[in-house]
Amino acid sequence: MEEFQGKVNKLEEEKAALKKEKEGWEEERKRLVTWRVRCLDSEGKLNKRIGELEEDYDELKEKYDGAICELDDLKNCIIQEHINGFEKGLCQAAFSHQEVDMTNSKFDVNKDVIDGKLVKEDESGADEEAEKKAAEEGKEAGDAGEVAPDAAE
């Protein structure tokens, strides 16, 4: 009988240990359920925010595309106004100076008047650079000449 009593006591101890373990698992299950609920809630909020951001992106993309089109239109308008102004200037020059033939080969829009001479634009750029370089060298030579007499004194 004592043998059975020992087994019963042992079983009761195991039962108490299992009950404690079950309570621990129940607490863990509750914690995990609340964790799951929080995760699902966060996932829902994040999905909602992603949807809002996608809508904002689409809206901004449409505005950007519209602004690009408007800028292209404005650029084309500016170019056309420059062309119109140039043509207007030609017409006014032809009207003011009717004795001059505007179709003459001397009139070339690729030429410019520099120092009283009619020069092609690409040549005038090279001439201007050469003149600037010569002027700088002349200035440096003049500065060196001024320093030398002072050094002699």
Helix/strand-derived class? mainly alpha
Give the number of DSSP strands: 2
How are helices and strands ordered from N to C? HEEH
* Span of the ends, CA to CA: 136 Å
How much is the average pLDDT?
82
Overall outline: rod-shaped
Estimated helix fraction = over 70%
Poorly predicted ranges = 146-153
- Any idea what the radius of gyration is? 47 Å
Strand order of the largest sheet: 1-2
Q: Output the number of helix runs.
A: 2
Number of structurally distinct domains? 2
Proportion of β residues?
A: 5-15%
The largest β sheet comes out as: 2 strands, antiparallel
How would you explain this protein's 3D organization?
There is one protein chain. This protein is mostly helical. The protein folds into two domains: 1-102; 108-153. Helices cover 83% and strands 5% of the residues. The chain has a two-stranded antiparallel sheet. The longest helix has 95 residues, at 2-96. The protein is rod-shaped and about 145 Å long. The relative contact order is 0.03.
